[in-house]
């Protein structure tokens, strides 16, 4: 089903500050690509099958720019820790179990099943350093019909013996093998994934730079998440003025890179992100749970920096991007009230953009129902959120973001393919 029309109340972002709302409109999909949204169906599309969604809401599929798949099983545990303690007590021991491909297959099935049934259409996903297990993860997502970039993690220092690659050469070799395994995949691409600067030697980072230059693959990692982490990077890399400069030194800040968190950015780092066109994955729940802080997202948007949302399982506890949207608004209000009132708090329009087109841009023309974008769509039914109030379509969207869940998702389409 690649050529069809959805009829209903259609919402997408005009830009980061404005919504487009078409009541009782038509969203046209031809060959998996949106032909636009219309108040009246053009004659040229009159012969296409029309799915009448009644009064339901039709929105672009949501994008998760930062999620750790192997951590899904222990989400909500260890929330009394800060980042580095949490990694050593919870994340690293669990990730070590993925050396067992059978364990990995069982754990990743749970993750992918829940990802499919939720709001997410596209995701940038961390695996573990284990090549075989990460290939299993990529294969499961490939079969699901969702679109994703999945990375085999690189880490050859400053981690436990049970979760550290033997050498930078081995790490690079396994990364190249993993990239070769994904050739021929249609829905999943590999993404270069140095865990973060403390876990990667200079030789490994230099080697990854070579792979990036050779393959043109994108990059995902973490930047300026936690004060203790930032101080550690300064000790490890005294030749670089900031944490961000380390990634830039190895060609890892570009329009093809995602840096998660970016809570404690210096002015220099903000300008680096802007100048390089890099993406920021804002993970508000994780930043609170691990006591990392509040990212200056309104400032980043004001500067024109690319920003999307991340669930950051298992620093975050849910795959729900609407939950991340809600928390992003709330975090921005606290930041505005108590830290810096120069930039206004985020509004519904802003976070809806982050969840759709803002993050979707990392995948190309995705995250919108505008003409020429890949047709990712959610059909949402808010009728079970009972009320006697007659809300506008925009207000219904806001309520669904704050109050809705999986039970409100009627159907999901990715590149024109109906997932359910």
Question: How does this structure look, described?
Answer:
- Helix 3 runs parallel beside helix 4 and helix 11 packs across helix 12.
- This protein is of the alpha/beta class.
- Helix 3 links the parallel strand 6 (120-126) and strand 7.
- It has 13 helices and 17 strands.
- The strands form four sheets. The chain has a seven-stranded mixed beta sheet. A four-stranded parallel beta sheet has the order 5-6-7-9. It has a four-stranded parallel beta sheet with strand order 11-12-13-14.
- The model has no long low-confidence stretch (mean pLDDT 98).
List the helices and strands and how they pair.
Elements: E1 4-15, E2 18-30, E3 33-38, E4 49-60, E5 62-68, H1 83-96, H2 101-117, E6 120-126, H3 131-144, E7 147-151, E8 153-154, H4 168-181, E9 188-190, E10 193-194, H5 202-215, E11 219-223, H6 227-236, H7 243-249, E12 257-261, H8 267-276, E13 279-282, H9 284-289, H10 297-302, E14 306-309, H11 321-338, H12 348-360, E15 377-380, H13 393-403, E16 409-414, E17 417-418
Parallel strand pairs: 1-4, 5-6, 6-7, 7-9, 8-10, 11-12, 12-13, 13-14
Antiparallel strand pairs: 1-2, 2-3, 4-15, 15-16, 16-17
Helix pairs in contact: 2-3, 3-4, 4-5, 7-8, 11-12
């Amino acid at each position: 089903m690649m050529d069809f029309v959805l009829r209903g109340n259609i919402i997408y972002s005009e830009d980061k500050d404005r919504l487009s709302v078409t009541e009782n409109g038509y969203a046209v999909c031809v060959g998996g690509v949106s032909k636009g949204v219309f108040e009246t169906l053009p004659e040229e599309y009159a012969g296409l099958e029309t799915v009448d969604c009644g009064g339901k809401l039709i929105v672009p599929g949501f994008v998760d720019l930062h999620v750790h798949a192997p951590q899904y099983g222990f989400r909500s545990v260890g929330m009394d820790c800060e980042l580095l303690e949490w990694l050593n007590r919870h994340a690293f021991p669990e990730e070590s179990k993925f050396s067992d491909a059978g364990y990995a297959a069982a754990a990743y099935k749970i993750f992918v099943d829940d990802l499919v049934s939720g709001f997410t259409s596209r995701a940038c996903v961390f695996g573990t350093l284990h090549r075989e297990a990460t290939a299993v993860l990529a294969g499961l997502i490939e079969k699901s019909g969702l679109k994703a970039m999945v990375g085999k993690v690189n880490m050859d220092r400053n981690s436990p013996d049970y979760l550290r690659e033997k050498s930078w050469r081995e790490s690079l070799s396994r990364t190249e093998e993993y990239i070769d395994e994904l050739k021929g995949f249609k829905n999943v691409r590999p993404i270069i994934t140095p865990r973060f600067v403390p876990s990667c030697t200079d030789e490994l980072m230099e080697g990854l730079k070579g792979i990036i230059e050779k393959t043109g693959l994108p990059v995902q990692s973490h930047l300026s998440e936690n004060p203790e982490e930032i101080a550690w990077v300064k000790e490890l890399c005294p030749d670089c003025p900031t944490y961000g400069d380390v990634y830039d030194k190895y060609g890892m800040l570009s329009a093809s890179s995602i840096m998660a968190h970016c809570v404690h950015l210096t002015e220099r780092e903000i300008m680096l992100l802007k100048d390089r066109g890099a993406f920021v994955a804002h993970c508000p729940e994780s930043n609170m749970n691990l006591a990392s802080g509040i990212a200056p997202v309104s400032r980043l948007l004001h500067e024109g920096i690319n920003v999307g949302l991340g669930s950051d399982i298992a620093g975050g506890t849910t795959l729900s991007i609407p939950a991340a949207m809600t928390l992003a608004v709330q975090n921005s209000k606290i930041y505005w009230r108590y830290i810096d009132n120069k930039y206004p708090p985020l509004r519904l329009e802003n976070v809806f953009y982050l969840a759709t087109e803002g993050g979707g841009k990392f995948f190309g023309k995705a995250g919108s129902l505008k003409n020429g974008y890949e047709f990712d769509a959610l059909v949402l039914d808010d009728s079970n959120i009972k009320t006697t109030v007659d809300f506008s379509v925009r207000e219904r969207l806001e309520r669904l973001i704050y109050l809705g869940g999986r039970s409100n998702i009627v159907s999901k389409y990715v590149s024109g393919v109906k997932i359910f």
